[in-house]
Amino acid sequence: MITCKNPIKELEASYSLDKMKRIILLSDTHNSIDKRVFPHLNNCDEIWHAGDIGKIEIIDILKKYAPVRAVWGNIDNHIIRKQFLKTTYFKCEQIKVMMTHIGGYPGKYEKGIKQIIKNKKPDLFISGHSHILKIMHDKELNTLHMNPGAIGNYGWHKIKTILSFNIEEKKIKKLKVIEFSRN
Question: What single-letter DSSP state applies at residue 85?
């Protein structure tokens, strides 16, 4: 029989673990996903794809690891556009998230995006498209911007990248950039 010295502490610890989400954020697969990504998907709770998926089979592969949230990008066909929105808004734990493919970044938002951020007030604004990994805080709009770069084979990026992070209540923790060389 296992006895607990402090049952309240144990309950709190177990509760806080349940309130954490492990996220993998990626973008711009452009019809292919590097197999070196798969080990990083094994322990995640959700996979977020910021567009330019390429073919729906990419989503099918990702769903084998965890539930997928995604938006369509400028190269995505009618099948993907039917399944996903251009821009999505959701809450993960206590973080309000806005994700779109072509959104720009603080100081250089795409037309109309800044006003949407002002109105929706996301804590986290995610975009893809540029193939440039970028993480920056927008002090004016009080939002964190993330662009995971590109993980697909198509494009001019020299390094393939994804992001891994945890969301615990209202905090983003353990943010990691994961890099892969282009073959």
Answer: B
Count of Cβ atoms closer than 10 Å to residue 120 Cβ = 14
Cβ-count burial 173-183 (b if 16+ within 10 Å, e if not): eeeeebeeeee
What's the pTM value of the predicted model, to 2 decimals? 0.89
CATH code of 177's domain: 3.60.21.10
Distance of CA 163 to the CA centre of its chain: 7
Per DSSP, 154 falls in state S
Residue with tokens 């193939």: 131
pLDDT of residue 152: 86
Interatomic CA distance for residues 155 and 59, integer angstroms? 20
Say how many domains are in the chain.
1
Higher pLDDT, 17 or 135: 135
Here the tokens at position 49 are 């794809």
